[in-house]
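Q: Got a minute? One more chain.
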Amino acid sequence: KVHVVYVNTPSLFMNTVDSLKQLEEAIKKNSLENYQIHIFSDSDEENGIAHFANHVKADLIVMGTHRRRGIMRVLYPSVSSYMVNHSPI
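A: Always. Here it is, folded:
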C-alpha cells in the first residue's frame, strides 16, 4: 500500500480541504492505485516524514525534489537531501 502524506507544519500550514485537494491532484497525475491519504502534523517536514514513516512502519520513502543549485540550495535546503542523508529508511 502507498501512503500519500502531507506534513502540516507551523511554517507551511495548509488547511485540511486544501491539503486533500493537493494530494488528490498528485494521486490523479501519477495514476496511483492502492493508496491511503494522510495529513500528519509535526514541527518541521523532516521530522514529520521520519515520524510518519516510523508510525506506519514504512519500508521505503519516496519523495520528489526541486533540484536547487548554487545559492538557492543554501537558502532553501532540500528536504529530500536531508532525508537521504539522515533517515535509516
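A: The chain has a mean pLDDT of 85.
Q: Perfect, thanks.
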